[in-house]
Design goal:
By secondary structure, the chain is mainly β. It has one domain. Helices cover 11% and strands 47% of the residues. The protein binds zinc ion.
Amino acid sequence: MDKMDCIFEEGPIEGGEPYSIASEDAYVVSAKARCWRCRAVIEVVCIYCAAGEILGDHYEEFAVSNITAVDAALWRQLERWPSFRFGYSRTAEGRYLANHCPCCRALQGDYFLHCEPGGAFFTLKGAPPGVIAVTPLLGRIRLTGDEGFEP
Ligand SMILES: [Zn+2]
């Protein structure tokens, strides 16, 4: 299953928009994590919006997890991170854009990266300097996923 199969896989959502989130100020945030299966140190990434619209309303500073659809503009830019691709998660009971270990191919669950203390993306603002690298995404990107705000 490659990313191309998953673009536009979801039908229109509320308001007729095909995606729940849009942003012209979005970033790929990457960090090092340890694969839960083979213990290799790997790069994991997530999408972070400094500002954007969620279902048409303006919000600032949120990360997006459990991504189920991305538009072509975002998909093209994500080719730089081939280990960040659609995969099936039993925990999430569905397919979403997830990090995979390049060594053993295990899916690295968004829940553990974003929601568990110690997860690479549990806190972005509080991360030590140098631990997290940020790459700006160009133009307007659209995607469907779960937004997460830091307190
Ligand atoms: Zn692994």
